[in-house]
Amino acid sequence: MLRILHGTNFDFIKWWRTAAVLTIAFILIGVGSALFQGGFPYSIEFTGGTLMQVSFDKAPDVAKLRATLDAAGIKGAEITSYGSDRDFAIRAQGAEQVAAQAAGAEKVALQIETALKRAFGDNQFKVLGASSVGPRVGGELRRGAIIAILISFLVTLAYLAWRFEWRFGLSAVLATAHDILTTIAFIKLLHLEISLTVIAAILTVIGYSLNDTIIIFDRVRENLHKNRKMPFYDLLNLSVNETLPRSILTHATTLAATISLLILAGEVIRPFAWVMSFGIFTGTFSSIYVASPILMWVENKYPRKNEARSGTRAVAARP
């Protein structure tokens, strides 16, 4: 069996103050960006509208493409090139388009396609895909996404209450909340569009981070019984070091998969890969530098009965 970083003795916990400053600063930057730049961009799944992907035989003049859509009444459409200079995604999310979409499922899509045929010819482009969402459906999807995140958080609370005692559960929940905040800040700083794919990535990050925290806490719980006289500070470091080989292998393989998606996958899946790649980092970070220090603080604040543990290292007591 491959053994890497076996028997390490790194002092992870001593950096928790520096880690706290960095992560709080990152969250504040993300929140500030959201406040001063007008919140988050939402996909048509949440706002309503039409998304059409088209591929031209020859690279078109983008200015002509925009003028064609404006002349057809599709004003303010977002035109994005992806893959090559012949492939474009056209997003019609204006108030007029959303209102028109409510009147007919394919009305705006047909309007765009007809305008492009008149300007560029019938055989000069292909419609690769089109999706249309009415405003009512978009609102329902937005509510559903918020409910999904809240339900996942409540299920997490229930699971932790059953799996661990309250000290461990409280630390894991706060670490999970940290992961949600940092991931949202990351999404804003990268200007990623909030879509159902991104919501799925956030839910995946929550589960991934929680799993990493539970593995470390399981080892802490085992070491509490095996090393009853060890200071809790040292016991936390021991537990993190003992789970380090497993963490490195798991995170490396998962990160390799997400980076592959990031490089090789298309535009639709790329936001998911971005969020998951960051989630691997923030999930590992929070398990070590958020959940563990909070657990140490709780242990010092509310010590266990009949146990005299110290959160600081008792160097003189070592042989």
Q: How would you explain this protein's 3D organization?
A:
This protein has helices spanning 16-36, 44-47, 62-71, 95-103, 107-120, 135-163, 166-189, 196-226, 232-264, 270-301, and strands spanning 49-56, 78-81, 87-92, 125-133. The protein is elongated and about 80 Å long. The longest helix is centred in the C-terminal third of the chain and has 33 residues, at 232-264. Strands 2-3-1-4 form a four-stranded antiparallel sheet. With 319 residues, the chain is α+β, with helices and mostly antiparallel strands. A hairpin with a 5-residue loop joins β2 (78-81) and β3 (87-92). The protein has two domains: 13-40 and 138-317, Multidrug efflux transporter AcrB transmembrane fold (Up-down Bundle), CATH 1.20.1640; 49-133, Alpha-Beta Plaits (2-Layer Sandwich), CATH 3.30.70. The model is unreliable at 310-319 (pLDDT under 50). The chain starts with 15 loop residues before the first helix and ends in an 18-residue tail after the last helix.
